[in-house]
Design a protein that fits this description.
Length: 417
């Protein structure tokens, strides 16, 4: 049976429940996923004096072929993008600046240090997002940055964040699509603190200074990312969820929810509807925590589907900015991007092929038997046939055939580095 024939059969099955499959594919095509560049080089970046990864995060594995230059990283991203249906965005960290062999301190970074990325994004019709890098640096050696008791250190990181917002503004202006500039800091303590309030007061003041700098909001959107704990900040993190939720609501900033940054039994899918009642927009770092914030490659698991369902059934595709955040050095890094991003898109498609209005009505009517029965039956509806047809229509490999492209690229390019 051809892809088209299987698709037509699947379409009939979904349409019986009022799902317009063609419309769903049209909508899906326009949903951008922000793909994080740092999966390609284990968050090393291209600074002249490379620092060891810090900030309580870790990349494990030594799979060969890691990108070590901006050209290699861009080439790897292009390969992954050629295997992923749709038009997407690329998310950069400040450590991916290109400074022509010159040492430029992070607080002195300028748009010109990202000209190559912008040129490349234009050529590939991509939007760019950005993050200041407040880790892997001697001024973050004790795990404190924007909440540091030392004013000079705080000042350095405040200036880095302001510089980053200006770089974000430049991306947005040049590319005609606003850049999401997201601030994540590692600040916290290994052991039980004797004062939780003072560091939070300092972080609040630092953020106020960062956001006081004049940056055009139509080109740059500010986000702040919370965390529960990291390696070395097990007992206390200054930028907790409650801290940033309060700050974002009061100051009209976006909260960025990383799916690995909460208690293991807490789910981000359950937070979206609550937060959207009070904020117009929020952002995601979709990751897969395994026992801790391990940043495993995103799989099509229950929580990913639930996350996508919450975005789709609440009509929030324009309100939730979807980005990814995982890093695995134990497998081919281009394959990691491809698997994780295809899964995110698959989850959105799955959500769009669910008869959400009907299921909502069943709940309103108190018909929980039919609600559960249908949710379960839809898990084995011919979703795969629609996905395969979509990939084919979008000109990317169908099913696992994309692996062939990875194997050739690994042999011809990655292993020769
Ligand atoms: C590279 C990091 O993952 C990123 O900056 C941050 O978003 C994070 O999730 C830290 O745990
Ligand atoms: Mn994150």
């Amino acid at each position: 049976m051809s892809l088209k024939e299987s698709y037509e059969i699947a379409k009939t099955a979904y349409e019986k429940w009022g799902v317009n499959v063609d419309d769903a594919l049209e909508i899906l095509k326009k949903v951008p996923i922000s793909i994080h560049c740092w999966q390609g080089d284990d968050i090393s970046g291209f600074e002249i004096d490379q620092h060891e990864l810090s900030g309580g995060i870790d990349v494990t594995g030594n799979y060969p072929g890691k990108a070590t230059t901006p050209e290699e990283l861009r080439s790897d991203l292009e390969k992954a993008l050629s295997l992923i249906p749709g038009k997407h965005r690329v998310n950069l960290h400040a450590i991916y600046a290109e400074t022509n062999g010159e040492k430029v301190e992070r607080d002195k970074l300028e748009p010109k240090h990202f000209e190559n990325w912008v040129k490349w994004a234009k050529e590939n019709k991509l939007g760019l997002d950005f993050n200041p890098t407040l880790f892997s640096h001697e001024k973050a050696a004790d795990g404190l940055t924007l909440s540091h008791p030392d004013e000079e250190i705080r000042e350095f990181w405040i200036n880095h964040c302001i510089a980053s917002r200006k770089i974000g503004e430049y991306f947005g202006r040049e590319l005609g699509t606003p850049c999401l500039t997201n601030i994540w800091i590692p600040d916290g303590y290994k052991d039980v603190p004797s004062d939780r309030l003072t560091p939070r007061k300092r972080l609040k003041e630092s953020l106020d200074q960062i956001f006081a700098a004049d940056v055009n909001e139509s080109h740059n959107i500010d986000a702040i990312e919370s965390k529960l704990f990291g390696i070395g900040s097990e007992s206390y993190v200054v930028g907790s969820h409650e801290f940033y939720l309060g700050y974002a609501l009061r100051n009209n900033k976006l909260c960025l929810l990383d799916t690995g940054h909460f208690h293991p039994t807490e789910t981000v899918s359950n937070k979206i509807s609550a937060m959207l009642l009070y904020s117009d927009k929020l952002a995601l770092h979709v990751s897969r925590p395994v026992r801790w914030d391990s940043d495993h490659v995103v799989t099509l698991d229950d929580e990913l589907r639930e996350l996508a369902l919450e975005i789709v059934r609440n009509d929030a595709l324009d309100q939730v900015m979807i980005g990814l955040d995982f890093f695995d050095a134990s497998i081919n890094r281009v394959a990691a991007w491809t698997i994780g991003t295809r899964n995110m898109i698959k989850a959105l498609l799955y959500a769009m092929l669910t008869p959400n209005d009907y299921l909502k009505q069943l709940q309103e009517d108190g018909n929980f038997t039919e609600r559960l029965a249908l949710i379960e039956e839809f898990k084995t509806y011919p979703f795969g046939a629609v996905w395969d047809y979509y990939c084919d229509k979008m000109g990317v490999p169908v099913k696992e055939t994309w692996l062939d492209a990875i194997k050739s690229y690994e042999e011809d390019v990655m292993l020769n580095r």
